[in-house]
Every structure is written in structure tokens, then in C-alpha cells.
Amino acid sequence: MVGAERAVTEGLAALVHRAATGASSYCEVALADVCDDSAEPARHGLTTPDGVLGGGSSGYGIYEASAGHVALAALEPHFWRRLLTLLAVDGSRESLESAFTRRTALEWEEWARAHDLPLVAVRQSPSTAS
Questions:
Q1: HEC profile for the chain?
Q2: End-to-end CA distance of the chain
Q3: Total domain count for the chain?
Q4: Interacting residues of 99 by C-beta distance below 8 A, sequence separation 6+
Q5: Are 28 and 80 in the same domain?
Q6: pLDDT at 50
Q7: A Pfam family in this protein (predicted)?
Q8: Residue 58: closest CA among 31, 90, 88
Q9: Do 82 and 22 have their domain in common?
């Protein structure tokens, strides 16, 4: 999947280049390179249980709402500060868990959109819906 995304990205870049310059382009997408790039987070320890992307940051995770779940990705400091200020919480996982139970996942998503915050309602895939 990541290889296909990279191939499409390179193809689109070639089209933009041609539109801007009139010149043709040639690109190769090596799956080994794509795999190597995809392994960077693991290589740098970001996906370990205490890593930023592995559960070590309360600003990146899935939280239960009053109905459904929300996915939070407040990794950048400006998003994190804004979230803490608006929710009036201390940033601990427990304080966020408590705060997110006050609304439904869809209500939180609407709230986050209005406040430019990286939070969405988790939606069930049609293939996994019961």
C-alpha cells in the first residue's frame, strides 16, 4: 500500500513538473526504499510502548467518548497547548479520559474542527460493522 502511494506521489510530481516546465520526467520507486522509510519511526524508538507513537504520549491515542471513540494526534506543541487550555486539563491520560466522556465522539470531532485541533471520531469500517 505504501509503495502504491509513493508511486502515485512520484507520478503526480512528474505531471506537475511537466505542466510547469514542459519537460518530461522519469522516476523509479524502489519498494526497498519505501520499506526503509516506513521503518524510521520504529528505528528511532517512536513506536515502543513508552514512545511518542506507541502510547507514551497522552497527546497521541484513542480515547473513549460518551458514545464511540476519538483519535487524538496532538503531537505538535501548539496543538497540545491549545487542547489543554480549552479542556482545562493537566495533560495526564486520566484527565483526558475524564474530559472525553463529556461528549459523543461526533460532538468532539465537530468541536475539534471548530478549534483547529487534530482529533476525529473513530469510524467503523463497513467490513467490520456488525
A1: CHHHHHHHHHHHHHHHHHHHHCCCCCCCCCHHHHHHHHCHHHHCCCCCCCCHHHHHCCCEEEEECCCCEEEEECCCHHHHHHHHHHHCCCCCHHHHHHHHCCCCHHHHHHHHHHCCCCEEECCCCCCCCC
A2: 26
A3: 2
A4: 87, 89
A5: no
A6: 85
A7: CoA_transf_3
A8: 90
A9: no
Could you tell me the mean pLDDT of each successive run of 10 residues in the chain, 130 residues long? 93 96 94 91 87 88 98 97 98 98 98 98 80
In degrees to the nearest 10, what's the CA dihedral of 86, 88, 93, 99?
-80
User: Do 24 and 66 sit in the same domain of this protein?
Assistant: no
Containing structural domain, residue 10:
2-38
